[in-house]
Amino acid sequence: MTAPDAPSTPAAVVDEFLRLIMLPDPVAARRYTAPGLAIRFTGGRAMADPTECTAFNKGRYAWVKKRIERTETVSAIQVHGAQAGASATPADPEETVVYSLGTLYGEWPDGTPFEGNRYVDRYVVKHGLITHMDVWNDSAEWLMVRAGLATL
């Protein structure tokens, strides 16, 4: 099953999902996700729906956007082959891993602007839908600096 009018490649699926979720329009973004979506956000926070990502971002930022620098794809066979071993899970030839890399920009809750906050997102796309999403960025480090607890 694929999303209606789905983009033609896994990378395009992820790019369109990100465009929608950063509007933010998590309900529209949801049409690019599979039932049972597993999201692991910064800090290992487990989520299951794009609306949870938007709610989390509303608490952390006044607003935030992604400046996508590049999108990379790796077939599941390549990923599983790189991790081959006695306990390796067989690759699913229908899965593609998509990485979105770039920087975040926006405003902190107090209105202070920021930009250049690095991010890496990892998505698993199967049959044109996102099944897994992992999010990493430097926001926690930046917040520690703002609190006087660290330096960059």
Mind sketching the topology for me?
Elements lengths: L9 H12 L4 H4 L3 E9 L3 E3 L2 H11 L2 E13 H7 L12 E13 L5 E14 L2 E9 L1 H8 L6
Parallel strand pairs: 1-6
Antiparallel strand pairs: 1-2, 3-4, 4-5, 5-6
Word description of this protein:
The protein is α+β, with helices and mostly antiparallel strands and about 150 residues long. The protein has one domain (about 10-145): Roll (Nuclear Transport Factor 2, Chain: A), CATH 3.10.450.50. The protein contains 5 helices and 6 strands, in the order ααββαβαβββα. A hairpin with a 3-residue loop joins β1 (about 35-40) and β2. It is globular, with a radius of gyration of 16 Å. The N and C termini lie far apart (about 45 Å). The model has no long low-confidence stretch (mean pLDDT about 90). This is Membrane protein. It comes from Pseudaquabacterium pictum.
